[in-house]
Amino acid sequence: MQLVFDILSWGAWSVDFQDKESWLNWDNNVTASSDNKTSPALAHVPAMQRRRFSRLTKMMLTAAHDCQPANNCRSVFASRHGELTRTLGLLQDIVSKEALSPLAFSQSVHNTASGIYGMVSGNTAASTSIAAGEETLSQAVIEAYAQLVENPAPVLLVFGDDPVPPVYNQYTQEFELPLALGLYLAPANNDKQPAIAQLTLTQTALPQTASEPDSDDTVKALTFAELINAIACQKSLSGQLCHWHWQLTQPLEPDMR
After folding, report:
1. Tell me, what's the pLDDT at 167?
2. How far is CA 147 from CA 57, 75, 122, 193, in A?
3. What is the mean pLDDT of the chain?
4. Cβ(170)–Cβ(88) below 8 Å
5. Which residue has the higher pLDDT, 94 or 35?
6. Where are the domains of the chain?
């Protein structure tokens, strides 16, 4: 299976790289900040609203806003862990026999960011929420592809995750979080809007990655940050991410299609 898209625009946020310009300077050798308390400013949302949002929701709304999608575009929101921190807090309140916060309860569902995005942007188009373990991002891309096959109007894809609470550390190892990525996607070689890059995902049996150097058929293992940097710099990239092979290339000129 091979999926090909035009990337029309993008957005991303992490503690160390909080705007598009900063992602141009990403370096694989730089140690990520240990400050896990910083949140996006989310200046385009009124303060009375944004103060109630979790950091995950703020990150995903920031990435979505930076994409500058069309009004009422369809969207796919993806998060492996979702609002796990809120959910754990509710469980702790139950154990302590304390009253549950209606606000915390209402924003503990997995489609919290999707629903709040619709409210703050006035977007009433369909939105899908995806959770698929280590393949969450790639499965969200598959969902976006299916929607584009049905209707070629661009789709907004937003992926994001926060570190899990310490009690869950033994069950997961993800060193790039917190992080959010937004991609505004259209069918490959669309003739209506200019693309900044072309993205190809290929499902393939890859026995080893570059971290396992004993094979001659090794494939470079990518990180989320490396992918975002390549999009920001508009440079080609190829490697394995979320159990799929990803390839980022420059789009064909109109007279070469």
Report:
1. 87
2. 23, 10, 21, 18
3. 88
4. no
5. 94
6. 9-196
Q: Which CATH number does 9-196 carry?
A: 3.40.47.10
pLDDT at 152 over 50: yes
Taking residues 81-110, what's their average pLDDT?
83
At residue 158, what are phi and psi to the nearest 5 degrees? -130, 125
Tokens describing residue 19: 């705007």
Cross-strand pairs, 12: 181
Helix/strand/coil percent split, the chain, to 5: 35, 25, 45
- For 129, half-sphere exposure in the C-beta direction (CA atoms, 13 angstrom radius) is 18
DSSP 124-182: -S-EEEE--GGGHHHHHHHHHHHHHHH--S-EEEEEEE-PPPGGGGGG----S-SEEEE
Q: What percent of the chain has pLDDT over 70?
A: 90
- The most distant pair of C-alpha atoms in the chain lies apart, rounded to whole Å, by 68
Segment 112-116 shows an average pLDDT of 94
DSSP 37-68: ------TTS-HHHHTTS-HHHHHHHHHHHHH-
Element (H, E) at 5: strand 2-14
What is the structure's pLDDT at 84? 85
Q: Which residues pair with 4 in a beta bridge?
A: 200
Contact indicator for 90, 108 with CB cutoff of 8 Å? yes
Please, are residues 9 and 214 in contact by the beta-carbon 8 Å criterion?
no
What is the rounded distance in angstroms from the CA atom of residue 200 to the CA atom of residue 174? Answer: 24
